[in-house]
Amino acid sequence: MGWALALHGGAGDVPRTLPPESREPRLATLRRCLDIGTAALREGRTALDVVELVVRPPLLVSSPVPLSVWCRQPRAILDPIHGQVRELEDCPHFNAGRGSVLTSDGTVEMEACVMEGATLRCGAVSGLSTVANAVSLARLVMEKTPHIYLAFDGAEAFARKQGVETKDPSHFITDHNIERLRQAKEANRVQIDYTQPMKGQNTQAPADDNSQTGTVGCVAVDAAGNLATATSTGGLVNKMPGRIGDTPLVGAGTYANALCAVSATGKGEEIIRRTVARDVAALMEHGDDALPLRDAAARVVAGAPRGTVGLVAVSRQGEVAMAHNTTAMFRACATEAGHTEVGIWTDADAAANGETVSVAL
Amino acid sequence: MARWAIAIHGGAGVDPNLPEHRQEEAKRVLARCLQVGVDLLRAGAQALDVVEAVVRELETDPFFNSGRGSALTRAGTVEMEASIMDGRGRRCGAVSGVSTVKNPVSLARRVMDKSPHSYLAFDGAEKFAREQGLETVDNSYFITEDNVGMLKLAKEAGTILFDYRIPLTGADTCSALAGAADSSNHHKAGMVMNGLPISVYAPETVGCAVVDSSGACAAATSTGGLMNKMTGRIGDSPLIGSGTYACGACAVSCTGEGEAIIRCTLARDVAAVMEYKGLPLQQAVDYCVKERLDEGFAGLIAVSSDGEVAYGFNCTGMFRGCATEDGFMEVGIWE
């Protein structure tokens, strides 16, 4: 028992030759997010607050308010949208919020989802182009509307009504992603994402068209045993405008119930048809063969075509599972018992067993 | 050779006081659309083609809330959504925010067959429809007088309305709404759905689930969504795993309180319970309707690869029809 937290910055065929300048900023962000999340959990914040926290807060980035002070402030005073996924959304190295990959029109269309395990309440958004933190808008849909899912113009209009932070669409577009789009168009292919360095030396551009880093997500179980999950993404490089992936689809990329919380990443179309996040929970729930978290996660991931799926999950008991059938998954986790992990690839032994890695209390 | 079977629905949550002539009309439309599917199956058509054809019929008929006859957004426009899933390989396609495409289910199929994606929405979906040469019409084509009247009523009541097919009479005024709308007891009895009394609410999402003579299953669902919904609101119908699901074992299409269906991923749960708990189709349907819907009201239709049909609902009624290869055929509304 006890709290636990896991987060990801996307799964994909990221080669181990990934240069330090691409690796280090992402690892640094993962570590920072882990610290923010664990501090919040220790302070007694709810799982739902924590998963949303991971994506933000610009508060911490721009002003050195001690975390303990900030976390102790009553929610009414705090900007109501704090969450771990927010921190990840603000990092331009991950495919969510700023740093989102581009549609075939060169625009950004962001989507996100949050879900609270104890109540099955959920909120989702798609087609955002100006909202600074999609995950927070998803939470507002859950808390402030009778609906679960708002998209495109309707979601943007709702954002304005709610007064959430918005930016000019250009804020979200990075040179990195402009270049990625150009390459994808040349290759006339839709990419999940692409993490190879852009300087001309890379010969494997075609072979890396499945690199799938991107999408960010966080799952948590708090001290009271409540579970929550949040996922956020810019989607696929060179996707058709209007394309919706697995991230905002409850049961596909994001799902939480009273048993576990799951956030998935990878090839959206595969995750949708396999209802990946829901299936982890379903395997834990049903019948005599009810699987423990780690086995359920491993089974779901192994059941998808190689190179398409990764996920992080926590159980009510405070177990953590991080599994992927891709070469890599940017990830981090921490448990109350003191185990922490930040990683990208998986060690050779686990790789031989299907490239899954998991951590249990 | 497997036995074919087909189930269709026109929405769950029916006013017990629905006038007789409206009930008869509903049954006629259901019977006609069911027959379309039966004829195709007898001729050896594939499940995927059958569900698309049947849902097209249901969309085109203005009686139910899909295609023409869709519920209206709070802006008075129509935004339709649909999804389709092929149990073979679990391929799927979905669309939302469709405003000019005559048959949204066919656009969903094109997304599945002709795009690298599974789900397109709003402008992107409309653009793709034109690229694919699908039939488009002005948004006004989908708007019926009945629904314009209903939107007004919904706005007055200040709540979201599923749909309303009962002709307005003097008795159906806001006083009727005011009485029932705030009673949670009424909701518990299924007499209030999505904040509206059952006399005013009548969700009529349409759907079809089919298993063909090769044992392949497919499902499709289509809707205009909630009356007076916020622009951009997406419900369960286009969400794979919620409103629609098909796999090697079965195919499912749901209808009712969309948010409740999403929260419990209803369509996927029927299949998951068959798969992981080993329950046969009807038991899986009953289990999910009874145990999964918690406070929500909804219904679903399903078929299994063995040629069974099943349906279930926890509300006052569900417009439905089923037929199997051995000649069984029925349409119904009530328990």
From TrEMBL, chain A:
InterPro entries in the cross-refs: Ntn_hydrolases_N, Peptidase_T2
Residues with site note (Cleavage): G214, T215
Signal peptide (residue range): none
GO molecular function annotation: asparaginase activity; beta-aspartyl-peptidase activity
EC number assigned by the record: 3.4.19.5
Keyword annotations from UniProtKB, A to Z: Autocatalytic cleavage, Hydrolase, Protease
Binding-site residues for substrate, renumbered to this chain: R243, I244, G245, D246, T265, G266, K267, G268
Any GO BP: proteolysis
CDD domains for the chain: Asparaginase_2
Active site: residue positions: T215
Organism superkingdom: Eukaryota
Reaction it catalyzes: Cleavage of a beta-linked Asp residue from the N-terminus of a polypeptide
Pfam family, any one: Asparaginase_2
Coiled coil: none
Oligomeric and partner information: Heterotetramer of two alpha and two beta chains arranged as a dimer of alpha/beta heterodimers.
Name of this chain's protein: beta-aspartyl-peptidase
Taxonomic lineage: Eukaryota, Viridiplantae, Streptophyta, Embryophyta, Tracheophyta
Automatic annotation (TrEMBL), chain B:
Active site, per annotation: T205
Family matches, as PANTHER family: ISOASPARTYL PEPTIDASE_L-ASPARAGINASE 2-RELATED, L-ASPARAGINASE
EC number from the UniProt entry: 3.4.19.5
Naturally occurring in which organism (per UniProt): Miscanthus lutarioriparius
Catalytic activity: Cleavage of a beta-linked Asp residue from the N-terminus of a polypeptide
Keywords noted in UniProt: Autocatalytic cleavage, Hydrolase, Protease
Quaternary structure and partners: Heterotetramer of two alpha and two beta chains arranged as a dimer of alpha/beta heterodimers.
SUPFAM superfamilies reported in the protein's UniProt record: N-terminal nucleophile aminohydrolases (Ntn hydrolases)
Top-level EC class: hydrolase
Pfam family, one: Asparaginase_2
Official protein name in the record: beta-aspartyl-peptidase
Annotated GO MF terms: asparaginase activity; beta-aspartyl-peptidase activity
GO biological process, one term: proteolysis
InterPro entries named in the record: Ntn_hydrolases_N, Peptidase_T2
Residues of the site described as Cleavage: E204, T205
Highest taxon, organism lineage: Eukaryota
Binding site for substrate: R233, I234, G235, D236, T255, G256, E257, G258
